[in-house]
Amino acid sequence: MQTASIPDPSPADFEPSLQARLWRWMDQKLLEFPGLVEGRHQGPRQKLQGWQIIAGLTAQCLHRCGSLEHIMRRYFAVRLSSSALSQRRAHMQLEPFTTVMRHALRPMARPDQHPDCFFAGLLLVGIDGIQFDLLNTPQINAQVAKVRTRRAEAAFAKLSASVLVELGTHAPLGVAMDFGPMSEKALIEPLWESLPEKSLLILDRYYGQAPMLQELQKHCATRSSHFLVRVRDKLNVKVQQPCGDGSAQVTVTLREREPVPAEDAGQPAPAEPASRTRGRPRKHPPQKVSSLTVREVRGKMRCGNGQWAEVRLWTSLSEQQACAQQLLELYARRWEQELFYKELKLQVNQGSLLAGQRTETAAQQVAAMMIACSLLAEERLAVAAVSPDQAVRQAGALRISFAMCQEYVAALFLVLQSSEGLMDKQAQGELVRRVRVQIAEAALPPRRLRSCQRRVRRPVDKWPRMMKPTSLPNPRNFTITNIA
Predict the structure, then answer these.
(1) 200 and 226 in contact (C-beta within 8 Å)?
(2) What pLDDT does residue 404 have?
(3) Is the pTM of this model over 0.85?
(4) Do 309 and 433 share a structural domain?
(5) Mean predicted lDDT score pLDDT of the chain
(6) Could you give the number of structural domains in the chain?
(7) Residues 97 and 192 in one domain
């Protein structure tokens, strides 16, 4: 099956129509579903194609107001009720959205144009988990079980997802979804196919454990990539060779429980009499033992309260590629993943609750949010390219306000859609250029080091309160701990 070619994002290649922007990532043969127009119906049934539903959901994420019914009427002159659209979306399933995401979610930073998005020629990326709340509808509650809490059931069932994000542009590169409690170990498996070549994968402490470290090293090696992961303080290692910058090459023993055979799963082990087990060591399930050689960096980082916290990092980068001080600074870039999730929930979705009435439509909404974030990341890079400030251009999308870009781009699409036939291509291009210049003029200032204490105002009680705030001028936020 042939797919449309994907051009590189460039400020000069702006398509004034939202449909044209999204059409680059779609395959018309795959997205035309005859089932969307079949069935018995009183009177003529209006034809609706799959790509129009994908474009309508993406536009709904951009506009932040109006139902899908109004969005479809505005962009495609399709008059269908919300219930009819929900039925057709349920018949459509998630497969066409997955096909579009395979084209839309891609790296966007360029080493020559956005050097701040790279380190030593490696693209900075990250993976982390996120959860969304599902509506309490009979269809969802019958398929997704709620998590039990200490008192009762959780208020909402959950949709769990892991997202591979380009840290320098906040562009999603891949997403894996599942319904129910979070299982990042299972969700990370589909994301290895989306890991770019020559990248540096920055992960938090959850991934620094035995079941994931070997997979992490294997997949990064096959793509000429590297990893930087935080690990727990209690892991025992054997120092092989200290390095001059305070780090060291260490060997760690990994112990992982062997999988239980399918025929033995669910069958309890026969209980032995108490007289036989008394005084004997308890039997543990068999474990798979292996070793892993990595480079370890230890240090201290200053928290928001002014205190120091121990940090322990493992990486596949050598001492010649990055020193210990650079690795501690790089790990702070992992916070861009959390900022991406903030933009995803507060700006795009306006909360953690999904509006889908069924599991299929809820997953489609998350997919449309990823496509919208990819489109906004592409536009933020184009806005940064027209900025007269070189620092803004090199920073890529991080100095361009996400909320302002979303508001201006949504208004621009609406104006261009309403004025179709009134302006020629040259007038449309000039309008786009002026809007981009206005967004670039409001570029965000460089981020400052957070040195103020993080506390909240609360009623008088026995807990300590902040009576007089203090601030440290340009504090040093990390120190290196030498590994003997």
Answers:
(1) yes
(2) 92
(3) no
(4) no
(5) 81
(6) 2
(7) no
pLDDT in tens, 14-56: 566 777 777 777 765 555 555 455 445 555 566 777 888 888 8
Q: Within this chain, do residues 21 and 140 fall inside the same structural domain, yes or no? A: no
- For residue 361, the model assigns a pLDDT of 92
Q: Among candidates 331, 303, 304, which has minimal Cα distance to 317? A: 331
Please state the rounded mean pLDDT for residues 338-343: 93
Residues 148 and 240 in one domain: yes
For residue 277, the number of C-alpha atoms closer than 13 Å in the C-beta half-sphere is 7
- In angstroms, the CA 401 to CA 442 distance is 8
Residues whose CB is less than 8 angstroms from the CB of residue 165 and which lie 6 or more positions away in sequence, other chains included: 125, 126, 127, 128, 171, 172, 173, 336, 337, 340
pLDDT at 383: 92
Task: Answer for the pair 440, 395: CB distance below 8 angstroms, yes or no.
Answer: no
What's the pLDDT score for residue 405?
A: 92
How far, in Å, CA of 104 to CA of 285, rounded?
44
Decide if 390 is inside a domain.
yes
CB 339 within 8 Å of CB 170:
yes
State the residue range of the domain holding 60.
11-38+46-102+355-441
| DSSP per-residue string spanning 280-335 | SPPP---EEEEEEEEEEEEEEEE-TTS-EEEEEEEES--TTT--HHHHHHHHGGGH
